[in-house]
Design a protein that fits this description.
Elements: E1 22-26, E2 32-36, H1 71-81, E3 94-103, E4 122-131, E5 146-154, E6 157-164, H2 177-184, H3 200-207, H4 213-219, E7 234-235, E8 240-243, E9 249-258, H5 267-276, H6 280-290, E10 296-304, H7 306-311, E11 331-340, H8 345-350, E12 363-365, H9 369-386, H10 464-471, H11 475-490, H12 495-508, H13 510-519, E13 559-564, H14 570-582, E14 586-591, E15 596-598, E16 604-606, E17 609-610, E18 621-625, H15 631-636, H16 638-649, E19 654-656, H17 661-666, E20 677-679, H18 686-693, H19 702-706
Parallel strand pairs: 13-14, 13-18, 14-17, 18-19, 19-20
Antiparallel strand pairs: 1-2, 3-4, 3-11, 4-5, 5-6, 7-9, 8-9, 8-12, 9-10, 10-11, 15-16
Bound molecules: CIS-heme D hydroxychlorin gamma-spirolactone 17R, 18S.
CIS-heme D hydroxychlorin gamma-spirolactone 17R, 18S binds next to strand 4, strand 5, strand 6 and helix 9.
């Protein structure tokens, strides 16, 4: 006989027999259908045992203790207790996607790597983007380097190109990596600040490590706050080797170039995005792939031989140096398209194990000491993170080509060799054998020298390329770098560290140093830091280093935020959204209330956001379309005023219909209208407005906004 139930778990009864009466299932059109219990998959334990009641644990009487026979409860809680694995010690926060790499033309002259042999060949890939310093739950818009790790599942095994969105690194020797990362991450006694380099320990280490100065210029630039993962470059950083079938080696540096051009956010915008949408980058990647706007990059290579390396001003083995693109133009060799999100974040993005030492025949290492140190590190880290040596059995890490070896057993072994023989050589003629012709052979580079702990003289110039980066930036980008340095050092509590940093800046650019020193309130200038190489070279500027110079010039792939109210001109709105989608960009509608608005033609328009949840920092440009009746209420909304004022401050393009002018006035920008604030539909029409948006920012506005003149 059924006992009395508590009534708290409507779909479960506490007696023994049937549990679910009905369930709801969503149809293809989103509608809900009822499905009968018999048509639903049966819930089981991990051992496959059918579960009768998943709502109540087993107890003695309605108010009595739980009992140990409850194997279902025990298994469920046990598994939950073990759901986490250690987060990555660096690059903990990441987001991944699947796609393919397509080779343009055969590269057989340079490399025998199978994936580069045939024009049009497609190789499946998995890419994981990441921030470096923050923990797994930190915000996307931290000022930080972005990881850009690509796993190519080639027909000759996996090739992992584990790169960053910045082509140089902080240190020249892997032995300094733990120190660098300790200093960059949260301070150990107080456990803050998270995902930020604006603290004493980081700048203490950096200011004592002159080799980091070039990288410091990059992370203080807008490169460290990308607008989207889709709008950033990637770099293999180190010099690698291509090796062809004749065993000839060519040095190679890898570059990923985004099809939609480069774009970053303003620092004030980054700070606000982190609050408004800490998942800004991952949401953007998710949305663009799910909507069929597949992000794309071109793989380009800088190829060079030993003679070039010998004639170059710097050492090509030094990972704190670039080879300027103007000096050695990168050649396009293929494209990467990301077209599928993982089915499960943990199984794929979290468990993916990148290792720099995963290279196929035809790709090899150089003697870059950082690369060689990395080749040592990545295997260890996967063992720790994934808990055993069989992480290659996980589908995301397993090669997609045939493979065979005698590695066996260990935790979670899923694919042990079958048959009697698990060794070789054997006389049974069983099992795989190595092949001197098809197998990987390391490039037989000749090496000599005394064994010693040392740093080569050729790595000693720490300032010339740092300066080259700075002088290659446009004026707004240079201003951002000065502001970033000032902000970061303003958070440093120890005056000596600030001074030491400024003493390095003096070796890079005197004006930059003076600006930062003045903003930090220095009474006098410190002496320039002692430099290992006393004469800094004045290298030619490299425009390729500027984001503004490499901007997209098109609004494609960007997002327009349109603030609408009741009475919005339906025709104007329709025309605008059509012009935007023609440009392959996206519109999102923001309304004063949740749900939407009633347009001028009496029809209801659904909005994507309520104004409080859709601040203008989430968009690349904004438009305000309102009506004479609604504007009075709109100007009373503080968030509507911020919507406009922030967009103006962040130098974005703003479109408005004449009835929105009172909001511009209230936001304090009506007196500073410039060429980036455009009345709609305007004489030139909506498509010309949208093509104007391709300029992305009105940087000329910035100085007046900064000084509060706007
Ligand atoms: Fe890494 N790095 N790294 N790194 N790195 C890791 O491996 C390491 C370096 C990079 O999305 C770890 O699986 C050392 C340079 C990316 O899963 C670890 C040194 C570059 C990712 C590790 C470096 C990178 C990592 C932590 C100094 C750019 C994320 C978790 C010699 C070229 C991959 C893991 C992903 C991850 C070690 C320096 C890029 C501990 C010792 C330079 C993109 O193995």
């Amino acid at each position: 006989m059924a006992k009395k139930t508590t009534g708290r778990t409507p779909r479960a009864k506490t007696d023994t027999a049937t549990i679910h009466d009905v369930q709801l299932q969503r149809g293809t059109g989103g509608e809900l259908h009822q499905i009968a219990e018999d048509d639903m998959p049966l819930l089981t334990t991990a051992q496959g045992g059918p579960v009768a009641d998943d709502q109540n644990s087993l107890r003695v009487g309605p108010r009595g203790p739980l009992v140990v026979d409850d194997f279902h409860f025990r298994e469920k809680i046990f598994h939950f207790d073990h759901e986490r694995i250690p987060e990555r010690v660096v690059h903990a926060r990441g987001y991944g996607a699947h796609g393919f790499f397509e080779t343009y033309d055969s590269l057989a002259a340079y490399t025998k790597a199978d994936l580069f042999q045939r024009s049009g060949e497609r190789t499946p890939v998995f890419v994981r983007f990441s921030t470096v310093a923050g923990n797994k739950g930190s915000a996307d818009l931290a000022r930080d380097v972005r990881g850009f790790a690509v796993k190519f599942y080639t027909k000759e095994g996996n090739w992992d190109l584990v790169g960053n969105n910045i082509p140089v690194f902080f240190i020249q020797d892997a032995i300094k990596f733990p120190d660098l990362i300790h200093a960059a991450k949260q301070e150990p006694d107080r456990a803050f600040p998270q995902a930020q380099t604006a603290h004493d320990n980081f700048w203490d280490f950096i200011s004592l490590t002159p080799e980091s100065m070039h990288m410091v210029m990059w992370i203080m630039s807008d490169r460290a706050i990308p607008r989207s993962l889709r709008f950033m470059e990637g770099f293999g950083v180190h010099t690698f080797r291509f090796v062809n079938a004749k065993d000839e080696s060519t040095f190679v540096k890898f570059h990923w170039k985004p099809k939609l051009g480069l774009q970053s956010v303003a620092w004030n915008e980054a700070v606000k995005i982190n609050g408004a949408d800490p998942d800004f980058h991952r949401r953007d990647l998710w949305q663009s792939i799910q909507s069929g706007n597949y992000p794309e990059w071109e793989l380009q290579v800088q190829l060079f031989d030993q003679d070039f390396a010998d004639s170059f001003d710097f050492d090509v083995l030094d990972p704190t140096k670039i080879i300027p693109e103007e000096m050695l133009p990168p050649q396009p060799i293929g494209r990467l398209v990301l077209d599928r999100m993982p089915d499960n974040f943990f199984a794929e993005t979290e468990q993916v194990a990148f290792m720099t030492q995963n290279v196929p025949p035809g790709i090899d290492f150089s003697n870059d000491p950082l690369l060689q140190g990395r080749n040592f590190s990545y295997l260890d880290t996967q063992l720790k993170r994934l808990g055993g040596p069989n992480f290659t059995h996980l589908p995301i890490n397993a090669p997609k080509c045939p493979f065979a070896h005698f590695q066996q057993d260990g935790h979670m072994a899923m694919r042990n060799p079958v048959g009697r023989v698990n060794y070789q050589p054997n006389s049974f003629g069983e099992g795989p054998r190595e092949s001197p012709t098809r197998g990987f052979r390391h490039f037989p580079a000749e090496e000599q020298g005394a064994k010693a702990r040392l740093r080569p003289e050729s790595f000693a110039d720490h300032y010339s390329q740092a300066r080259q980066f700075y002088v290659s930036q446009t004026p707004p980008e240079q201003r951002h770098m000065a502001a970033a340095l000032t902000f970061e050092l303003s958070k440093v509590e120890t005056p000596a560290i600030r001074e030491r940093m400024v003493s390095h800046l003096l070796n890079i650019d005197e004006t930059l140093a003076a600006t930062v020193a003045q903003k930090l309130g220095f009474q006098s200038m410190p002496k320039p830091a002692d430099a290992a190489v006393p004469t800094r070279q004045d290298l030619e500027p490299s425009p390729a280093l500027s984001i503004v110079e490499r901007g997209p010039r098109r609004f494609e792939g960007r997002k327009l935020g349109i603030l609408i109210t009741d009475g919005v001109d339906a025709k104007l709105l329709k025309g605008l959204t059509a012009a935007v989608s023609k440009e392959k960009a996206v519109c999102e509608l923001i309304a004063p209330k949740v749900g939407g608005v009633t347009a001028s033609d009496g029809k209801w328009i659904n909005a994507n956001h309520m104004i409080d949840g859709g601040p203008s920092v989430l968009f690349d440009a904004i438009v305000v379309l309102t009506s004479a009746d609604a504007i009075e209420d709109l100007v009373k909304e503080a968030t509507a005023r911020d919507f406009v004022a922030d967009a103006f401050q962040h130098c974005k393009f703003i479109g408005y219909d004449p009835s929105a002018m009172p909001l511009l006035e209230k936001a304090g920008i009506a007196y500073a209208l410039d060429e980036g604030v455009i009345v709609l539909p305007g004489e030139a029409g909506l498509s010309s407005f949208v093509s104007e948006l391709g300029k992305l920012r009105v940087w000329g506005r910035e100085p007046s906004v900064k000084l509060g003149k706007a």
